[in-house]
Sequence to fold (89 residues):
Amino acid sequence: MAECQEPPGPGGAGPRHDGRPGVLVRGRAGGRAPALDSARYKETQYRRAGFSKLKQFRAVATRYDKRDYMYQATIDVASIRIWLRDPVP
Fold:
């Protein structure tokens, strides 16, 4: 019986499946995702959204300021502008 000639998988390493149709070989990367902690997810998303709003300010995103205290002042001013523009209910 001849071996199945499969094209290589991602990165050129080995076949994409183990010979059975619909069965992928995932190794350590496969399996079910861990349970979602909704409170932690919500907190993480809140933090990411805050950084995204800060990085909309060019001086914060590119760090134009040479001194760390000036950069902190730039972040403070940007945070105040965000707070005034988008108050949290």
Notes: The first helix runs from residue 38 to 54. The CA atoms of residues 16 and 22 lie 10 Å apart. The two ends are 69 Å apart (CA to CA). The chain has three helices and no strands.
